[in-house]
Amino acid sequence: MPENNETPSLALLFGVAVIGTAFLQGFQVNGIQAVELVIPIAVYAGILYSIEKGILVGAASYMVLGLLLNTINGELILWTALAAGIAGGLGGLLAQKYSASFGTLVIATIIGVLAFELAIGLYLGELIPLNMESFL
Q1: Residue 40 CB neighbours (<10 A)
Q2: Three-class SS state of 69
Q3: Beta strand segments in 38-125, E
Q4: Which end of the chain is more exposed for a tag (fewer CB within 10 A), N or C?
Q5: Which residues contact 88 (CB under 8 A, 6 or more apart)?
Q6: Which positions ≥6 away from 105 have C-beta within 8 Å?
Q7: pLDDT score of 133 more than 70
């Protein structure tokens, strides 16, 4: 992880998450955005700073993206913000328990993405596809 004099600010991490995800909005696979930067950056903020700041970067990024891109509406904005906040907080939690390293970032990002998808799947009622036709 970076030394103190190389640590990016929260504003920079937030900006990269929002602007980067907005810029990459056109990269889609089957109508679903293929590249999302919010979760890994929120996890990184949690690892660098704290659980609370990871939650802040994740939640605020999705709130702004939902309003900026107008792709997320209604209650779904709140659910995506909550889920991204949880993912960012997991980064901070794992950094407290283990050393802050690249491996921690990778593991926390994978767990964060799974937690995010689980929360959104629960909200949408599409948690577990019950037939193979949904994959074809």
Answers
A1: 20
A2: helix
A3: none
A4: C
A5: 39, 42, 43, 45, 46, 53, 54, 55, 56, 57, 58, 59, 112
A6: 1, 40, 43, 44, 47, 91
A7: no
Check if the beta carbon of residue 83 is closer than 8 Å to that of residue 55: no
- C-alpha to C-alpha distances, 133 to 22, 31, 75, 89, nearest whole angstrom: 31, 17, 28, 35
Give pLDDT, residue 131.
46
How high is the pLDDT of residue 95?
Answer: 86
Q: Is the pLDDT of residue 134 over 70?
A: no
DSSP designation for 115:
H
Q: Are strands 32-33 and 28-29 parallel, antiparallel or unpaired?
A: antiparallel
- CA-nearest of 128, 109, 95, 105 to 38 is 109
> Among 84, 92, 36, which Cα is nearest to 58's?
84
Residue 33: per-residue pLDDT: 63
User: Which distant-in-sequence residues (6+ apart) come within 8 Å of 19 by Cβ?
Assistant: none
If residue 17 lies in a helix (H) or strand (E), which one and from where to where? helix 10-23
Question: What does the pLDDT look like over 73-129, one tens digit per residue?
Answer: 778 888 888 889 998 998 889 888 887 788 888 888 888 888 888 888 887 777 655
